[in-house]
Structures are given as C-alpha cells and as structure tokens.
Write a structure and sequence with these properties.
3-methyladenine DNA Glycosylase II, Chain A, domain 3, 2 domains, 12% strand, 304 residues, Alpha-Beta Plaits, 10 helices
C-alpha cells in the first residue's frame, strides 16, 4: 500500500512539474520571441536550397536574411538563375536589373606535354601540397593538375584532362567552390556576357624568354593581340581582356587578334550557342581565362 502511495505522489509531482515548466516555457516563448519578417521565409522557400555558397553567403537562409534586411541584390543565386530572381523580385517588390551569369575560368592552357622542366613528385597528390614544393614544374603560375578543384565541385563540372583543370560549362552553376580551393588562385569566377566568351589561357607574368623556357604554349607578351583589339591590354607581360568593355561588337577584332597570337592563347570558352558557334567555327575551345591574375607566388617565397 505504501509503495502505491509513493508511486502516486511521485507521478503527481512529476505531472505538476511538467505543467509548471510548460507554462514557464510558453511564457518565455511569448516574452522573448523575436519577430521575423515573413518575407524571409518566403525568400527561403523561393531559393533552391542548394546551400552552395555561390552567392557569397554561407547558405540560402543567410542569403534570404541579407536580401530582406540588407537589400542585397536578388540576382546572386547562381543555381536558381533568372526564374529565382524573378520570384525574389516579386516578393521584395524590386526590379531585377541586369543579370549576368558568372562561371569559373582556369588561367592555364598547358597540358602535361606542354610543360617543361618538370620533376617527379612523390608527395601527397593534392595541389595544396604540391604548391609548397619547389620544382614540381617550371611554370610557377600553371595548373598543378592534382584535382583539388574536382574534389571540391558538387556538380561534377570540372575535371582534370591530361593534367589540366577543364570546366564542363553544361554542368557548371558558377558556385565558386573550385576557385576557393585552388592554391595558385588561377581559377576565378568571371561574368559571362555571352554563353561563349574569349579568354587568355595563361597567367604567367614572366618575360617571354622565361615563359618559353618552361612552357610550350604560354603567353610571351608579344603585344600582337593588344595592337588589334582595344579590349586587350598588356599587364605585367601578360595579355588580359577587359570584360567591362567586352561586347559582341568587339568580336571581329578579337577574332583577328586570335589569328595573330603566335602561341594560340586566345580561345573561346563556355557553352556555345548557335550564333557563337558559327562566329568561331574555326576555333578550338579548351576550357579556361579572366583578368584577375594572381597566384600564391605573389604572397609566398615558396615556388612550386
């Protein structure tokens, strides 16, 4: 009998505590509740939920808050594309503005057979590790080809082809994961004003004779292209394209500049439309480019 009384008292006590705690928690929830703009949830629902980071934020939720609270542009979702931007514009009541897709560009066009002064490398097969070892290859700006970018891509959109990182633009969404892991910073996210754009497939800033000593195809800074097209400039012995001035009207001069390039470093990259394919039917199209040329060699004494 005593046992049953004890059990009943214990159960009653626990039930009473549960009711009291439920009341306290309910009061606290109302008292300390933070009001959330209903547009945030609407924006989250409109986003694809990929959480790829291509917009520059950690995930879709953080981007949604920034859109609502900080008036961040609504066309930064690379996965959702134009349809997503249209839906966000409806939710936020703003104009979409010009929407230009961004895609990665690899600033190197040298495959294994094009690279000189190579030495065997027996370390960890990662670009981040090989970049710290002197003499892996003569060109201190070129692609190392160990596939850090390939492993970082969740969309199977970049592969190592004969030692060179190559973008599959039919699969690429421009999330930027490959650019973030490249230790030499030779992959950058570039605005594609057309499905197919011209690019300089080299990032070597050395003088011509030094480039020829380490690479069969690297830009030698001869300036032939810059003399033909006003969107091509020489910077630190390297041809670069000014994409702010890039337009379809520039294409004839760019094609002439491409023909004049003795090292064939001006190429078209991207996903060709019918119009672009006809305009550049004679061109080969390896996948690479862009003007923000910078390598880890600029920041460290190691030369790998």
């Amino acid at each position: 009998m005593i046992t049953w009384i004890t059990l009943a008292l214990a159960a009653g006590t626990m039930l009473g505590m549960a009711l009291i705690m439920s009341f306290v928690l309910g009061w606290a929830n109302n008292k300390f509740r933070v009001e959330v703009d209903p547009r945030v949830e609407a924006v989250i629902n409109a986003l694809p939920g990929a959480n790829c980071g291509g917009c520059g934020f950690v995930g879709c939720s953080e981007y949604a808050v920034a859109v609502v609270a900080d008036n961040v542009p609504i066309n930064k979702c690379l996965v959702g594309g134009e349809s997503c931007a249209i839906e966000l514009s409806r939710i936020m009541g703003v104009e979409i503005g010009e929407s230009i897709p961004f895609r990665p560009v690899v600033h190197c066009g040298a495959h294994f057979e094009d690279r000189l002064e190579r030495t065997p490398y027996y370390g960890e097969k990662r670009c981040s590790s090989a970049n710290l070892v002197a003499g892996v290859q003569g060109c201190t700006y070129g692609c190392l080809g160990f596939g850090d970018c390939t492993r970082a891509c969740d969309y199977d959109a970049i592969h190592i082809v004969d030692g060179l990182a190559t973008v599959d633009y039919k699969k690429c969404i421009g999330c930027g994961a490959c650019a973030k892991v490249c230790p030499r910073n030779i992959i950058t996210i570039t605005p594609f004003k057309a499905e197919r754009i011209m690019a300089v497939t080299c990032s070597n800033k050395d003088k011509g004779k030094d480039v020829m000593a380490v690479c069969k195809v690297g830009c030698i800074g001869c300036q032939a292209c810059a003399k033909i097209s006003n969107v091509i400039h020489m910077e630190n012995n390297l041809s670069t394209i000014d994409y702010d001035q890039y337009s379809s009207e520039c294409l004839p001069d760019l094609l002439k500049a491409c023909e004049k390039c003795p090292r064939k470093r001006l190429v078209f990259i991207g996903k060709p439309s019918e119009k672009d394919a006809e305009a550049a039917a004679f061109m080969e199209a390896p996948d690479i480019v862009e003007p923000d040329f910078k390598t880890t060699v600029d920041d460290t004494e190691w030369r790998g």
